[in-house]
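Typical record was shown:
=====
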Amino acid sequence: MSTASCLLSIIVLTIGGISSEENQQPRYAEQLFESGDYQAARRAYKRLLFYHPNTPLRDTADYRIAQSYYHQNLPELAERSFREFSAIHPNSPLRFQSQLMLGQLHFDAEKYALARTMLFELLNRSKDVEVIAAAHYLRGWCYVHTSDWNKAITEFRRADAAEINRPEKEKARQLADTVLNETPLSLKSLEMAGWLSTIIPGSGQLYTGNVKEAIFSAAVTGTFIYLAADAVRERRYVDCAGISLVGWHFYWGNRTDARRLATEYNEQREQAFIEILKRQADGVLP
């Protein structure tokens, strides 16, 4: 979702109308940004704005400054800068790129619902084909991370349908096909795990593939049942009540533990599938 080519085009088109003194500064700042020296690039762009506040490259400079914060892993400053960009430059061709970056920031912060909302608003406003494709691609990944596979497929298909020549298009097609073929994932039912352990302690743990936990749960529960029965046989009713009370807590905890293990199994299964998708994306990630 890099906008380097767009920004460089703006610079090239406008550079002829800039004074000789002002000419070199944006070139120097852009070179710093492209080389990955984001702190120096941000300073260079700020210097340009300080000495030439009316420069026609003001929106480009503000956008690059916000991007520099993002690449330096300063999300709060980046978000503030991108939000201010839309207010300061409401007619800039980069305003939709700025909104796209806000969606990216929410995605990075794992605020997937907020990211989707931001991107949905962007899709309703922008006519830029590349921005629209990037927004659908990012929304697809938002749905992947919330295991909403059908909506993820839809978004990846829409990104693939865009008439652009970008890596995201090819990857979107592959990702959509993989999600379609591999989902729904084979997951464990929390209710099933809980009820199994309610009926036969340890069987819910065994259902989730945790053999050691299943044996332990069955053994401990069996021990409490034996001790309680022995106390009744010997008419030690007070002891039986105490043993039953402790045993009941463990028995009910066995049910809860089975549901927890089922949840962990499902999370691990989903995370493993997401890792497969990331490898398939081969670096073309949001």
Summary: Residues 15 and 145 are 43 Å apart (CA to CA). The chain has three domains: 1-109, 128-184, 190-278.
